Amino acid sequence: ANMAALHFEVLARSKLARASRLTLPHHVVQTPMFMPVGTQGVIKGIANDQLEELGCQIILANTYHLALRPGADLLEQMGGLHKFMNWPRALLTDSGGFQMVSLLHLADITEEGVTFQSPVDGTPMLLTPEESIQIQNKIGADIIMALDDVVKTTTTGPRVEEAMHRTLRWIDRCISAHSRPTEQNLFGIVQGGLDPKLRDQCVKGLVERNLPGYAIGGLSGGEDKDSFWRIVAQCAAGLPEDKPRYVMGVGFPLDIVVCSALGADMYDCVYPTRTGRFGSALVPEGVLKLTNANMENDNRPLDESCSCMVCKQYTRSYLHTIVTKEAMGSQLVSYHNIAYMMKLSKDMHTSILEGRFPQFVQEFLQKQFPNRDVPKWVRNAMEVAEIDISIRVQQLARETFLIQDNWRH
Amino acid sequence: MKFLVDAWSAGARAGSLILGELQLETPCLLMLTKKGLPAHITQDMLDDLQTEGRAMQISPIEFLESPPPKVVAAVGGVHKYLYLKKSIIVAVARNQFGLEADGLNGTKFGASFETSAGRRVVGPTKYMEAVNALRPDIWASLPDEVPAWATPKRHRMAVDRTLQWLDECLSLNAVQDDKVLGVVVGGASVEERKRSALETARRDVSGFSLSGFGLGENHDERGELLKSIIDNLPEEKVRHISGLGMPEEVLEGVAAGVDLFDSTYPHTLTMKGFAMVFPLSMEKQNGYYLEKKNGHHLSNGDMKKKNGFHVSNGETAGVYLDPSKLDMRSYIHRLDTNPIVKGCQCYACRKHSRAYIHHLLNVHEMLAQTLLDIHNYHHYFSFFRAIRESIAQDKFESFRNWFTSRSYDNTTVDPATYKESYMDGLLLAKN
Ligand SMILES: [Zn+2]
Ligand SMILES: [Zn+2]
What is the interface pTM, i.e. ipTM, of the complex? Predict the structure, then answer.
């Protein structure tokens, strides 16, 4: 498994954080990076040209959904998902296993694979590691994910250990099934629940396989935040320096900043687009609920520091009248939220390059927590990341107070 | 507002509507909006559509409560509020998405509308509060619209009320501009239509909006109704019509001398999953889907087996009897790498295949509506352009005859021909 269809270069470091250039078959991407989720081969309501305009470098598509409709054979016949959706930049597909376990009631995992009831006709079906890879080979994404044995993070006991060992057994089946290693990059997924020993074993096992990249899986499933960041920190530290690290299912801006400070590079989540459809805009201060009545008379843009099409053109007042009511409301707020995530990624990348990542983190936290009530888990994580946030936060608080004071006069 | 008639052809006229720095060539289509914006096309995509995409119709009824008129007024009107600086905004009471006043709950104080805050009666005062806040480029007065089947007495009352409301709107017009269209009503009564036109023409208006069409009138009597109105309107003023949508209806309106249309047709097709594909000129038929191609044919059964398709019950083999539109939901598009219309310059056709649009519809992704709306509007704008050209060349009558007879001819073509050509298309798509 020492073949890779990517080139990964760390351009700069700031303690554990890294800014890198990842050259994939279809696009050269920069990390840290957020990958918007286009489940069905489309980011809801956003056209390809708009995604390019927004600076999206890679889109994640869900194998399970694509295998159902339009079908892997059809995609292969059409020359792959890139051609089918006419997306010139990079794509990533998941294994399909997680979607089955989370979406279907009757999914069951055995040594052979994931058994589930066909959502079309209810007949029992089986997704093996081999099949997952075959389907992903047909879809043709730049990065494909190994089928892993996912358990809920809240699960404890022997099931967690079993899942970790099975994930390692399955990775070998995935590797031998992978038919396009020079065109697609197979990433392995670290499992092991919240048990550091199991995580360590899994990291070592995967690293032995010398894969093009690694993901940290099984998180963002309701575990407490302190456990979450500790697992990310531990896995990131154990994974090779010269390979990309992808934390799956992470999409809250705060989580992304923390994980990047701990040495992770890639993230994906439906959160920015989904929350946009429900009328919440991501802004440096946190989340702006456009459905709130006080938005009706607010003629400011969503985010004064954002230069996206939506912030240039529309006021909070107008968006308040259309969110959750008109399709245009979803389109516009999702658009801005992707712009926000892209800017966040880019700002992290640039600040690491320019040697001012700690300041970036300090300013980010200052805006999110103007009352200096940075959660304990973030402070703990920043200690491990060696980013001092105490002094700066106080100092910035004073500056902001002065600015606000000026505004009042 | 200045309106110049540039050319006449068999009753139809081509002209230019000049509003400051903006200009509109007529006859033209006004894009429909929801709360001031197209339903699915964001502004950046609109730039790419065609210059015609810059003319929009909005409804002041949607701007009564949320956003409050004072918020829109505070920023200086709808152009600034919605960043529509280069757009021509025509404000007409009738909501084009089917929430028009039905006339039955109206009173002498106002017309009844379904609004975001429930059903309410809107009189001239409330209506003009919204118009004055929006400051559109052109606006029509508040009409008392009633369905064609209402009693003659009710139609007489509608004419009286609409005239009275016009006078009130004119006196409530904050800036006393020359942007007013007087609304002509009168249902299916030739006499009332004539009276409404004559009386409206006496007022200080810059043009006319012909209202109450598409509300159940008999299609055979429409020509006569249009004539009775337009014969009594001054030639030099612009004429807008609400409720004529289909291409044949548009041609009928143009023939009668109408300049501005607010057709729901392109968007209605989009919402049903259809794409407009009718040919746009007599010389160049773009019906490539009718071409006979050589090659062996696959039966539906073979196709299914070969690709492992699950054809759900809702899907039926698409055999097109109507060559003016494609049912993009039909599974026969699933392998078709062609654009909706070969050579179409719209974003949807330049970027995406029928197969992809079919997939988006199949999985209920709203980008399908965006792409279809872009194509359908683009196509309908091109149709209006063809109409303008035919008038400029004094060939409108033959254009209209060709268009209407073409529709008739093609619907009589043997369905098997369509099926065959589609299967050929699939085969081509695979190679
Ligand atoms: Zn923005
Ligand atoms: Zn097109």
Answer: 0.95
